[in-house]
Amino acid sequence: MSSLKLSGIGKCFGDVVAASDVDLLVNNGEFCVLLGPSGCGKSTLLQIVAGLVPQDRGSVLIDGRSVDNKSPKERDVAMVFQSYALYPHMTVIENLGFALRMRGMRKNVIKERVTQTARILGIEPLLNQKPKHLSGGQRQRVAMGRALVRRPSIFLLDEPLSNLDAQLRMHVRMELKKLHQESEGTFIHVTHDQVEAMSLGDQVAVMKEGRIHQTGPPEEIYDRPADTFVATFVGSPVMNLFKGVLTGSRGEMVFRCRDFLMDMTHLPDEWKNREVEMGFRPEDAEMGTRVGPIIHAGVEMVSNVGAEKHIHARVGDSNMTLRTEKDALIQAGDNIGFSVRPSRLHVFCQGKRMEFHQDENGGFQ
Ligand code: ATP
User: Fold this and answer.
1) What is the pTM (predicted TM-score) of this model?
2) Is residue 18 within 6 Å of ligand 1 at its C-beta?
3) Dist. CA 214–CA 225, nearest whole Å
4) Pocket of ligand 1, candidates 43, 79, 83, 188: which has the most ligand atoms within 8 Å of its Cβ, to mutate?
5) Which domains can be identified in the chain, with CATH numbers?
6) Ligand 1 centre from 250 Cα, in Å?
7) C-alpha 52 – ligand 1 centre gap (Å)
8) Is 150 within 8 Å of 78 (Cβ atoms)?
9) pLDDT tens-digit profile of 93-105?
10) Residue 211 alpha carbon to ligand 1 centre in Å
11) Closest by Cα among 237, 228, 335 to 283
12) Rounded to an integer, what distance in angstroms lies between the CA atom of residue 10 and that of residue 209?
C-alpha cells in the first residue's frame, strides 16, 4: 500500500473546468471517497491519478515521488469501473488471473493469489462459471477481484456500485469495507451517493465544479460543513438554511430573518450586523423540550419513512423539515413548537462557515 498526494491539480476540457487547484492527501491504507454531483470532475481526477488522462497543471505523487512522467502500468494502481468489463468468454478464475498471466507470473503464484482473492471476496464457488451466469453483485465482486489480485499500491474505484439495486448495493458496500480492512490497501472511491461516501470513507472529499470544498472524516463533514454547498449536499433531509442578519449587542445577539428570530447570544459581538445564513439539521429540532427559544410552525405535510417521520413545516414563507420519532402524533394542519440548541446551529457568511472559539474567560477569539 502507498500514500497519494495531489498537489495543485488543474484540468480543463475546452471551457469546462474538470479540476481546479486540487490538493488532496490520502495516507497509507486509508479509504478516501470523492463525493460530488454528476459532472463535478470526480472521474477525471481518478483518471489523472491512474495516468489515463494528463493533467494541465500540478503533480501526482505516490509515496512522495512524482509519477507525472510514468505510464499507467508503471504507476502500479488498479482501477475498478462502474461497468464490470469482464471477459465474457473466460471463466471467473481465468478473468481473475488474466492480468497476472499477461505479466508472465508463474502458474503457482497466480493460483495462490487467485485463490486468496476469491476467499476474501467469497466467490470461491463461482470460479468455474462464466460471467453470463453471474448476478450483477457477483460480477462486480469479480471485477474488484481482478483489481485486488494484482496487489496494486492504490485501488481506484469509479462508482463501482452504481449498477446494483438498492439492497445489493448495501450488501456489496459492506463487503467493500471488509475488503479494505482485510487487504489493508489504499482505496480511492468515487461516488455521488452521500450515504455511500459517509459509510465507506475514513476521509471524504466533497467536490463541486472541479474544486474540493472540504476534506475530512465523515463526522466532521456532517457536523461542521465548511460552506453552504457541503452543508446542503451532505445530509438527508437537507439542512434547513435561512438568510438573515445578526443584530443586537453582546449577550443579546439574535438572528433575524423574514419570518422568525433565533437567539444567538453565544456569538461574538464582532459578528453584529453581518448578513448570514443560519442553518440547523432536521434532527436538531427538539419538540417538547425547551433547549432554546421556541419557534412556532404550521405543519404542511408529514412523510412517514418507516423508522422516523419527516415533518414539513412553515413559518410565514420559510419552509423547514424536522425529523421526529415514528410514533410522534403530528399531522398536517397542526401547529408545533420546537427549539434548537445553540451549539447545533450553523452560521455561514458569504457561503463560508463562521467559526468561533470561546476562551477560558468566556471571551471570543
Ligand atoms: P459523473 O458522476 O457523471 O461520472 P464526474 O463527477 O465523474 O461525473 P467527470 O466525468 O470527471 O465528472 O467530468 C467532469 C466534466 O468534464 C464534465 O463536465 C464532463 O462533461 C467533462 N469531461 C470529462 N471528460 C471529458 C472529455 N474527454 N472531453 C470533454 N469533456 C470532458
Assistant:
1) 0.89
2) yes
3) 8
4) 43
5) 4-232 (3.40.50.300), 238-353 (2.40.50.140)
6) 48
7) 14
8) yes
9) 999 999 899 989 9
10) 13
11) 237
12) 12
H helices of the chain, where? 42-50, 72-75, 92-102, 107-121, 136-148, 166-183, 194-200, 218-223, 228-233
Q: Do residues 197 and 204 touch, judged by C-beta distance below 8 A?
A: yes
Quickly count: other Cβ atoms within 10 Å of residue 345's Cβ: 19
Which amino acid is present at 160?
A: P
Residue type at position 267: L
Residues facing 322 on adjacent strands: 311
User: Which grid cell is 355?
Assistant: 467559526
* Amino acid letter, 334: D
Distance 364 CA to ligand 1 centre (A): 44
* DSSP summary character for residue 267: S
Residue numbers in the chain where pLDDT is lower than 70: 84, 250, 289-292, 356-365
* Residue keyed to cell 467536490: 207
Distance of alpha carbon 166 from alpha carbon 189, whole angstroms: 18
Neighbour count for residue 351 (Cβ, 10 Å) = 12
Ligand 1 proximity of 43 Cβ (cutoff 6 Å): yes
Q: Residue 264: which of 151, 363, 347, 328 has the closest Cα?
A: 347
| pLDDT (tens digit per residue) in 38-50 | 999 999 999 999 9
Tell me the residue length of the chain.
Answer: 365
In angstroms, what is the span from residue 332 Cα to ligand 1's centroid?
43
Which atom of ligand 1 is nearest to 53's Cα?
27
336 and 315 Cβ atoms separated by less than 8 Å: no
Closest ligand 1 atom to 43 CA: 7
